Each structure stands twice: as C-alpha cells, then as structure tokens.
Amino acid sequence: MLFQSLAASLTYGSAALAAQLTQVSNYNNNAKAKPGMWVYVPDTVKVDALVVAIHSCQSSAQKYFANDKIPWHKGSDGKGYVTVWPSSTTECWDVSSKASLTHDGGGDSNAIANMIKYAITQYKIDPAKVFVTGGSSGAMMSNVLAATYPELITAVSLYSGVPAGCFVSSSGQAAAWNNTCSGGQSTATAQKWGDVVRNMYPGYNGTRPRMQIWHGSVDGTLAPANYQETIKQWTNVFGVPVTPTSSKPDTPDKNYRMDDFGPNVEGIWAVGVGHSVPSHLTASEAWFGL
Ligand SMILES: *[C@@H]1O[C@H](CO)[C@@H](O)[C@H](O)[C@H]1NC(C)=O
Ligand SMILES: *[C@@H]1O[C@H](CO)[C@@H](O)[C@H](O)[C@H]1NC(C)=O
Question: Which residues does UniProt assign to the signal peptide (predicted)?
C-alpha cells in the first residue's frame, strides 16, 4: 500500500517535473504588436545561453516546437540551453511595416526583443550568449532582428530568408507578402543593402550579430537570388568583401557549399535543395559556439 502510493507519487512527481513548452503571458511587452511568447527550459540547464527559434508562415510556437524537423527542442535538451519560441498573431511575421523595420518601432521585432530582455532576466541568461534562428518567414525576421536589435543578439543562423528590408511594403502594410522580393527581383548594391540595415537603427555603433545564412539553390518560394543579396547586405555591414575568403564544397553536408567571409559572415549554399533548407543543428550550434 505504502509502496504503491510512493511509486504513484514518484511517477506523478517526475511527470510534473518534466520540461515542457510553456506560455509566458506577461513578458513586459510595451510594443503595439502582441505576438505570444513560449519558453522551453530543459530539465537540466547546463549553459546560460538562449536560442530564439522563430517559426515560418502559417505556423505557431507550438507547431514549430512539435515539428520533428525543427531540432531546437532536441538541442535544448542535449546542450542544456533555454529556448524561446515567439508565436505570431498574423499568418507570417511582420517584416514589411515601418514599425517592425525600426528599432523600438512597436512592431513584431520590438516584441521579440522584449521577449529576449525578459528571458535574460528571468532565466539568468548571459547577454553575450543570445542566439536567433528561424526558417522562411522566421529567417526574414531573424535578419530584421539582427538589423533592429544588434545590441541584443550575439549570432544568427537563418534558413531560407530574404535580406532585412527586402519585404518592405510601399503602403506600410504589416505582414505583407512582397512578390518582387520573393521572386528575386529586389537586387541592389552591397552599399544599398547595408544602408537598409543601418537605417533601421540610426546612429548605432556597437557590435553586430555574427550572421550564418543558409539558402537552397532551387528554392521556389524565396528565389535563390536572395542568398547573394543577403550576403551583400551583411558583408557590407561588416565592411568585408562580398567575395568569399574560402569556399568549401560538401560542407557541412553533401552538395552544400560553405562560403566564408571572415569571422562574422558565413553563407551555406545548398545545391539542389528547395524551400526550406532543413535545420542543421550541429552546424548552427557550432556557429553559436554552443
Ligand atoms: C517590395 O519590396 C521592394 C524592396 O525589396 C520595394 O521596392 C517594393 O516597393 C515592395 N513592393 C510593394 C508592393 O510594397
Ligand atoms: C554611438 O556612440 C556614442 C559615443 O560612443 C554614444 O554616445 C552613442 O550613444 C552611440 N549611439 C548609439 C545609438 O548607440
């Protein structure tokens, strides 16, 4: 009898302790945009690092977390870091309105920055270990966050996005689709793309997040040209040539090519891969130094 109830309470106890994705209802968000914040704190936290995993269109924090192909839940359990999962209130992230394309502009990027600030305090994260990743719309938002909140983010690993500001809406619409950009017709000089980033946080002169950019060579949703445009953008921001210092074939996967542009920008061109390039946990964690 005693043993039975003890066993029952032990089972109950461990189930109650098992980590799960949890919503944070109040993350001190003063932005007008109100995306949801979800957090996963692994059972054993081994490192004071944070990874923000940003979902694609028609998804949510819960769907993205539950998706087997999205490896950040596994990464969190394995390496013992906290993950934050923003959840949009629109079909795709707002990467088109002035509000979201401006530091403290009140849009989705502002709200996600507030999630990061909340997480740093609440989960005792080292501000020098804040990492951002995402796929498709989440990759676009990763670029936008890197541009609007460079002071908060250490490194980014994004899969199949477009340059920051490429999805801008001429009418100022929030979360608008932009066919010119998605079709690969939004091309500009490196200087112009760099200016787009600098203008999102005028006067900022601190460090910028290190950028790892993945794109598939046969992407039918966000045209492959967006790879080169994104590389132009960040190499200009870091003031390095747009020609890689080295290109390694079959790295970090067969038929992928790793283009290096010094310590702060890395491109991974996935030959024969469409939309979206699958997350490569080991290579992204390595970029983060995790
Ligand atoms: C789409 O984005 C481009 C920049 O990439 C911009 O010039 C254009 O005005 C945008 N289109 C619309 C319809 O807003
Ligand atoms: C730029 O640098 C100056 C001097 O170091 C500093 O006072 C200023 O706040 C910085 N601007 C921003 C936007 O960080």
Answer: 1-18
